[in-house]
Each structure stands twice: as structure tokens, then as C-alpha cells.
Amino acid sequence: MGSKFTRAHLKFRDNLFFFVHRAWEQKNPDEYYHSHEGMEFLYLHEGRGQLILNDRMYVLKPRTLVYFQPYQVHLIRYEIPRLRSLIKVKLPLVKKYLHMFSHLADFVSMLENSRSDQQLFQLTPGQDDEINHMLDSIQHRLTTVTAHEQKEQFIIFLMQYLSYLKEHVCTGLSRGESGFSPRQSNHAEKIVEWINEHYREPFCLDKLSANMHLSASYVSNLFRTCTGSTITEYMMRRRLDESRVLLATTSMPIDQVGKRSGFPNPAYFSRCFKKQYRVTPQQYRTMVINPPIPLRQERYTGDG
């Protein structure tokens, strides 16, 4: 058993996707409730732990697959060491490729937006073999293809992975079946929903708190407790995420990209972007079109 924990760091779209392949971890993350911006798929190959999700406790053991919805607050306690694989995907860019696959798009929409009592699945040995084959295959491809091909290969893998889950693992998750209903957001998720609707506007905490029917101080403290981030920090990440997508997928002028992403003037946009990513928006656009950095293995100190 190796002790080094690494991830395959995908150098495209500034980590709107990333993939951890069969990685041993021996550090137990701090036990606190947190959430992630994207959808997350966690597969535990070896080891044990406990998951608190939707106010219920679940046991994690070998061959356990869990999916987390964007910004879904959860807590994981591990017995160490453990071997796991992890896929995190920020959905706005993924949906761009789903319009050709209507049934798969419906499935992803259900995973993202609906409240299910079943987000944890205990796989059979046969399913474990299939999942491991897919994970091993994409790991091999990502480490052998050129940087220009990595994104394409990962998207192909993701479509196959989601299709397999739909047909062979999450078979009970279809509209109208018992135990599946529209998801009711908690306060932190409602704050995120509000930000996603208003991030292009000047931020006003009083306006947000009035919408939530809560005090401004309570809203701020609650969001930081649940997500580990301040509302202002999240607002900035949301604007920068939007700007990256626009820079990568459109020919829109830089100043218009900033304006469309919620930045009041081009200089402020460039300053914030460079502070976060150490390149200017124009340099980033050039890098995405002609990515100079190949896939590499990096040390990862994951948060569960």
C-alpha cells in the first residue's frame, strides 16, 4: 500500500472538472460540514467511514458509491487509511454536451435538482469490476493523450460513466417513483440559488437577507458555517467561473466578458482575474485555446 495521495489534475477550463484515481489517503480531514460547487461522485474502494447527509447517518464501506449534489452540505468521517476515487464536475459546461442525449440529460437533471432518499449505493462485485475498468481506462487515456485531447477524452468518459450509472446503478431514480421528489433547498443552498440569479448585479447583503427573511448577520454566519466560505468569496468565485466559461467558449471582447460576469469595469475585472489565476483574461483565453501544460500528477490534500 502506498501512502502518497495524488490526483490527475486536468489542465483545462481551470478545473471545472477533476479526477482522483484510486488514491490512498491516510490523513483524516477535519470533521466539519461543507459543500462543493460541482457535482461529486465518491467511490470507496477500500476503507470505512461514516457520512452525514440530509440529517441521516450512513456507513461507508468498500464498494460504496455516493453522489453529492452541487452545494449539498455533508460531513464525512473516515477510518484511515482508505482508497478512493473521486470525480468532481461543475455542471454549467457539462450541460453544453448533454443536449444531444435527452435521456441522459434528464438523468443528470434529476441527480442535480431532485431530493432522493438514495444517494449512497452498495455496488456488487460485478459492478465494482465495471466501475474500476472505466476508471482505469480513463486514467490511462488521460496520461497518454496530448493536452489538446484530454478534455475530449474526459467528456467521453463522463458520458459513458453517467450512462452506466443510469442503466446499472441508479436504476430506481426515475421521475414518479417512490422516494423521489423535488429537492427542497436548505438555507445555504437558497443563498447559493439567490447568488446564481443575481451575481451580475452589485451585491447587497441586505437585499439577500430580506429575500431570505433572516437577519444579515445570521445569513453571513450561516453561509460560512455551512460552506467554509464567505458570501463575498463565493460571489467572486461565481463571477470568475462565468468569466472563464465566456472566455473559453466565446469571442466576446474582454470588457464585455467582465460586464456580463458582474464586474463593474474592465480594470477591476482584470485585477481580480489576475489575482486569482495569475494570468490576465486575455492570457487565459490564449491558454485555453492552446493549452501549454500537459496532464501531471500532483499532491492533493482533499477535503472529503
CATH class wording of the largest domain: Mainly Beta
Low-confidence stretches: 1-14, 175-181, 292-304
Shape: globular
Number of discrete helical segments: 11
Structural class designation: alpha+beta
The residue-averaged pLDDT reads 81
Quaternary structure of the protein: single chain
The portion of residues assigned to helices is: 40-55%
| Total strands | 10
CATH homology superfamily of the largest domain: Regulatory protein AraC
Report the CATH architecture of the largest domain.
Answer: Sandwich
How big is the Rg?
Answer: 20 Å
Instruction: Report the major sheet.
Output: 6 strands, antiparallel
Count of discrete domains: 2
Tell me the CATH topology of the largest domain: Jelly Rolls
Distance between the termini: 20 Å
Content of β-strand:
15-25%
Textual characterization of the structure:
The chain has 304 residues and is α+β, with helices and mostly antiparallel strands. The chain folds into two domains: 6-179, Jelly Rolls; 187-289, Homeodomain-like (Arc Repressor Mutant, subunit A). It has helices spanning 91-98, 102-113, 125-142, 147-169, 187-198, 205-212, 216-227, 231-249, 254-260, 266-277, 281-289, and strands at 6-9, 17-25, 39-53, 56-60, 64-68, 74-89, 114-116, 120-122, 180-182, 296-299. Strands 2, 3, 4, 5, 6 and 8 form a six-stranded antiparallel β-sheet that branches. Strands 1-10 form a two-stranded antiparallel sheet. Helix 6 packs across helix 7 and helix 8 (231-249) packs across helix 11 (281-289). 26% of the residues are buried. Pfam families: AraC_binding (PF02311), HTH_18 (PF12833). InterPro entries: AraC-bd, Homeodomain-like_sf, HTH-like, HTH_AraC, RmlC-like_jellyroll, Tscrpt_reg_AraC-type_HTH. GO terms for molecular function: DNA-binding transcription factor activity; sequence-specific DNA binding. Residues 189-287 form the HTH araC/xylS-type domain.
